[in-house]
Write a structure and sequence with these properties.
734 residues, alpha/beta, Serine Threonine Protein Phosphatase 5, Tetratricopeptide repeat, Heat Shock Protein 90, Rossmann fold, 5-stranded mixed β-sheet, 5-stranded parallel β-sheet, binds adenosine-5'-diphosphate
């Protein structure tokens, strides 16, 4: 009885698998689908054992390859097999699984199939029509959805059969009508047996024995022709019921016997046992799968746990690192703050120290300049008076006392000048000037001024100026002279009965710049190698002979520093007892055009026979006398005043050719006096005669209106050169 209903389901399985082939081209999948088809064939041939074994294989592979359509189809076939063994609950379980996978892949055909089979099991196996019929209705919904008239016909036949079995002919009739109306078009031979049988059942219900008998006989005949043994058995059963109802007991018995025989032949005992074993294997597989699933879940949970642990550990590590970082940052910050505070304090201390150093340096400068001034002022008197004595009392010229006096005064003066000079260099207060001069003349002058030294030590002086030297060079003449003077005077001092040679040669030329190499060599005592570096330090003297020593120990130190200002350096070669050579190269500018322009500007006419009137403004009585004597000796007409106020009042009444102005005076200093003179439109040239250092007062002197500065004690010729130049300039202007 059961088999009849399942035939439909089996057919549908085949049909749906054909669609699967179309949708899946992969060769492996094709092989699997072929296996599935084979399993269906076995089922159709009632070989449930093989059908189940094969369906199980297909299911395994389909699950592995995640082919959910094939999984759904396999579950469906397994369900069908279980239905055959009357394992209805299991059949329902597998149909439901099939339905689950069919829904996942949204395969309407497979859903239709599962619903139809569930309807079959509930209606025909469990006789639970209330539960089964809704499944059929869902099956109808899906076959309408996929617009499959064959399926709709099959389900309609099943529904009509279910209603008829439940004696609900009223509800079954519409489905029978649908079947009768569509059978010719959509039916086939496989369902013909059942189709005839349900018509027979309906006519039996109507009491039409003849018609019912005809349909049931047709059903039986068709079933045998097409070997539909399941359906034939049901047809025999229905026909037996009809015959029995109308009292044809013998025939009824025959059909009932055929029904029993057929059922027995279909369900051979051994087949069922084997199939049951196969079914058990399927079960076992399911359990295994469940177990594997469970183990997988467990493994996943384990992995998750490990991951969580790793995450926690990582989190702790990161947290620790962050803590360390924060700690380090905080420490660094506080360290920085501490260092900053210390630095700020140190900075402040440094600033204070710097300010103090600057103040000290200023005070030192002030001190040096004041002391220099204060020493120079009386020195001016000493030197001046000594000169006057020699002039006035000629027989004293050879007096050793007077010579000593002169020497001492000169020594003091050079010491003061040296100290002042080194102080200025150290404070970077020296800026090289640009004057035009003749190197050869300058060297001659120096030698002349040092002739007494040469004579004293009986030295021969040789000057060798190379012809490649330009006639005039532009540079700081005074500093250059100072360098030569210091080195040559040393050479003359430390050589006795020997030679001192001064040579100059152009080493190279770069544009306007001539690199002139100077070499001063002597045949004197020489300098020990160990002393050769030392002698350039301040106040260093070596091999000093106390009796006749002349020097401050500053000469070479000044030379070295001055040469640095010229971007040059001094080289020393010396052998004890043989002599010493100092070499250095100074870059001088030599521009012929520039030189001519400068020379033209300094055309000074010293040949005038005019008697100049000079106003001497000087507070120091001795210096008044010295200056006046000097001026008068050179035919100047002098008027001496003691301070600025007197000078102003004299100037109101008288005019002068030149004014010689002391700077450091009581009541009103030389600058102030000059300013007032200039404010009264008096243009007389004013020369400062001062013991101050020239650079120190140059700026203020210019601003006050002074024309030049001569430092006391001075070179007389220099003073007169300046006076002549200024006077002739002012006269040419007026
Ligand atoms: P000072 O002005 O006392 O001579 P310097 O700085 O000019 O000082 O010289 C330092 C020392 O170098 C001198 O005391 C002397 O011993 C040595 N010296 C310099 N020039 C010569 C030289 N040409 N021959 C020998 N010794 C020299």
């Amino acid at each position: 009885m059961l088999r009849n209903r399942i035939v439909l389901a089996f057919f549908l399985v085949i049909f749906s698998l054909c669609n699967l082939i179309a949708s899946n081209k992969a060769a492996a999948q094709k092989a699997l689908i072929n296996q599935s088809k084979e399993a269906n064939s076995y089922f159709r041939d009632n070989n449930f054992e093989k059908s189940l074994l094969l369906a199980r294989e297909v299911l395994k592979k389909a699950l592995q390859t995640k082919n959910n359509e094939l999984v759904a189809a396999s579950y469906n076939l397994i369900g069908c097999n279980y239905n055959e063994f009357s394992e209805f609950d299991k059949a329902i379980e597998y149909f439901n699984k099939s339905l689950h996978y069919a829904k996942i892949v949204a395969n309407d055909t497979l859903q239709f199939k599962a619903f139809n089979n569930l309807g079959n099991v509930y209606c025909f196996s469990k006789k639970n029509y209330n539960k089964g019929i809704p499944f059929f209705k869902k099956a109808i919904f899906y076959c309408k959805k996929i617009n499959n008239k064959n399926y709709q016909l099959f389900v309609s036949i099943n529904m009509a059969w279910a209603y008829f079995e439940n004696s609900d002919f009223e509800h079954g009739l519409p489905f029978l009508k649908y079947a009768n109306a569509n059978f010719v078009e959509n039916g086939n031979e496989s369902i013909c047996t059942v189709f005839e049988m349900i018509n027979g059942m309906y006519f039996n219900h109507l009491g039409n024995f003849k018609k019912a008998s005809e349909h049931l006989q047709k059903s039986i005949k068709h079933g045998y022709i097409h070997n539909d043994l399941d359906d034939v058995s049901d047809a025999h059963n229905e026909y037996s019921k009809l015959l029995f109802k109308y009292g044809h007991y013998k025939e009824a018995y025959i059909h009932l016997k055929k029904y029993d025989d057929l059922i027995n032949s279909i369900y051979e005992e051994n087949k069922i046992i084997k199939a049951s074993v196969a079914g058990l294997n399927v079960e076992l597989d399911e359990y295994k799968r469940e177990l594997t699933k469970f183990e997988l879940i467990k493994e996943a949970q384990k992995q998750n746990l490990i991951k969580s642990k790793i995450i926690v550990v990582l989190f702790i590590i990161v947290f620790c690192i962050l803590l360390i970082l924060i700690y380090t940052l905080v420490r660094n910050n506080s360290y920085k703050r501490k260092i900053n505070t210390e630095l700020t304090i140190a900075n402040n201390d440094l600033l204070i120290a710097k300010e103090k150093a600057e103040v000290a340096s200023q005070m030192k400068s002030q001190f040096v300049s004041t002391i220099s001034h204060e020493l120079r002022t009386p020195l001016y008197g000493v030197i001046g008076i000594t000169n006057m004595l020699v002039d006035e009392y000629k027989y004293l010229a050879k007096s050793p006392h007077l010579t000593s006096l002169k020497f001492s005064a000169r020594y003091l003066l050079s010491l003061i000048n040296d100290i002042l000079q080194i102080n200025k260099i150290e404070e970077n207060r020296i800026v090289l000037e640009h004057m035009t001069f003749n190197i050869s003349d300058e060297i001659e002058l120096i030698i002349q001024s040092l002739s007494f030294l040469a004579q004293n030590n009986r030295n021969r002086v040789e000057i060798d100026i190379h012809s490649n030297l330009p006639e005039y060079v532009i540079g700081d003449k005074l500093r250059f002279s100072q360098i030569i003077m210091n080195i040559v005077s040393n050479a003359l001092k430390f050589t006795k009965n020997g030679n001192v040679k001064i040579s100059a040669v152009v080493e190279k030329k770069e544009g306007n710049i001539c690199y002139i190499q100077f070499k001063i060599s002597d045949t004197g005592v020489g300098i020990d190698v160990k002393d050769q570096l030392k002698i350039f330090d301040k106040f260093v003297q070596v091999g000093r002979n106390d009796t006749d020593y002349q020097g401050t120990g500053l000469g070479l130190s000044i030379v070295k520093r001055l040469l640095e200002l010229f971007n040059s350096e001094v080289h020393l070669e010396s052998v004890i007892g043989q002599g010493t050579t100092f070499t250095f190269t100074i870059p001088f500018e030599s521009d012929l055009q520039k030189t001519n322009a400068i020379i033209n500007n300094i055309n000074v006419d010293l040949s005038t026979s005019h008697i100049f009137k000079v106003l001497i403004v000087e507070d120091n009585k001795i210096n008044q006398m010295v200056t006046r004597k000097l001026m008068e000796k050179n035919h100047f007409k002098c008027h001496v005043v003691e301070d600025g106020f007197q000078a102003l009042s004299v100037l109101e009444k008288e005019t002068f050719d030149i004014i010689l102005m002391d700077i450091n005076m009581p009541l009103m200093n030389g600058f102030e006096t000059t300013r007032l003179i200039r404010s009264q439109q008096i243009e007389t040239p004013i020369v400062a005669l001062t013991a101050f250092d020239k650079e120190e007062i140059a700026e203020e002197a210019l601003a006050a209106g002074l024309d030049d500065i001569i430092i006391k004690p001075f070179d007389q010729s220099k003073l007169f050169k300046v006076i002549h130049s200024l006077v002739s300039n002012s006269q040419s202007v007026s």
